[in-house]
Amino acid sequence: MALFAALISVLACSPVSEPHQSNAYQAGAPGIGDADFPTDGNGGYDVSHYGLAIDYTPATKHLQGVTTVQASATEGLSSFNLDLAGLRVREVSVDGSSATFTHKGNELTVTPAAPIDKQDRFTVKVVYDGTPQPAKDSANLGTYGFIPTADGAFVASEPNGSKTWFPSNDHPADKATFDFAITVPAGVTALANGELTGRPTTTDGKTTFNWSERHPMATYLATATVGKFQLRQGASPGGIPTVAAVDPKFASVLDKLYTESGRITDYWSTVFGPYPFSSTGGVVDDYSAGYALENQTKPLYGGFDPDEMIMAHELAHQWFGDSLSIKRWKDLWLNEGFATYSEWLWSEHMGKRTADEIFKTVHARPAGDPIWSYPPGQAKPGDLFNESVYTRGAMALHALRKAIGDPTFFKLLKTWTARHRYGNVTTKDFVDLSEQLSGKNLDPLFDAWLFQPHRPA
Ligand code: ARG
Ligand code: ZN
Asked: Which residues are within 5 Å of ligand 2 (an ion), measured at CB?
């Protein structure tokens, strides 16, 4: 040990070491800095826009992709990484010049012909193809990412499955706008986030759908769900453009999905503040995922007829999770606790059980119930979507509501969504705002509800 340390200090003082360069270039880190997911996302740059051109053939499960990433460097870069799982990279260019690359595991390392200066904007183009392999998780994530189905693909990528279909900075801490050009066999529909930018065009038996999401979006919320779909388009009573789509197997659900998605989005706009995006809606595909996902503007329901509660949950996520995104996965209760509490608010609004009644029922669970030993304020990477993150997270909000009173609580919800609209948030941000608006020290309350491994009194 001592010898090793001495050797290091000799090397550090060595006169042959390089002089310090003020405009140094380095390799961008292979992770964005989320300790629980060390290789998710990447260091050294910030993405502003993804342009995804995807050609997908359901019969062969073959995907051809051209992804264009517009980014700016946050440090001088000799090389940088993108996240990509499987697939074959054919060609990479940076600002139009061919770049060298290696693709090992989930890391695509790109070395541009010339290094990139700190703060410079640059554009990366990646040409790739292959059969997407969805992520399969033995814990509680199930199958996610780009999932081939009988007639297309079910695309739900939370938490880190975007890398199964496009090269990205795959972490919610780096949000960007998206354009999609999705080409599929004629007769098949491709659904992505945001709105169609024109009529789909068909040539040589293939149809291209152009969608655009003009508001910042986390990579896991991007979708390119493909298949036979029946569509209903229009607007909610409050005037929010609405798109509902169902697999023909769920034809009888289309009108309810359309009507309720619009009605619920309108109601949440009165409770949480203005709807953050340009359209709302939902998609029911014939794939039994065992979950739904709050894909931005188009929640996706995996092979079941969604009831009002789950629609209320996924649409509440448009504010909590989508407009306001977490910076670290450990703060997942800011998504799931809020969306679950929204279910309770919806129940109350519908004249069914009140939030207080639901809270009391859960609180009556025995001391040995697993939600009491899992503190929801620190979601565990191996058990991210634990029920505690949802239910005990919701209970934390109800405890807060009781402590600060309804007027302050509902003002807090609107202030929270307004202040951090399209941004990233942490638990500390929420605690600070709660204390600021209520004028109370709420540390003991949040500590008991979010961080203690036992049932709060
Ligand atoms: N955010 C989703 C919801 O509660 C759950 C996503 C679960 N993801 C997964 N890979 N199972 O609405
Ligand atoms: Zn949720």
From this structure: 336, 339
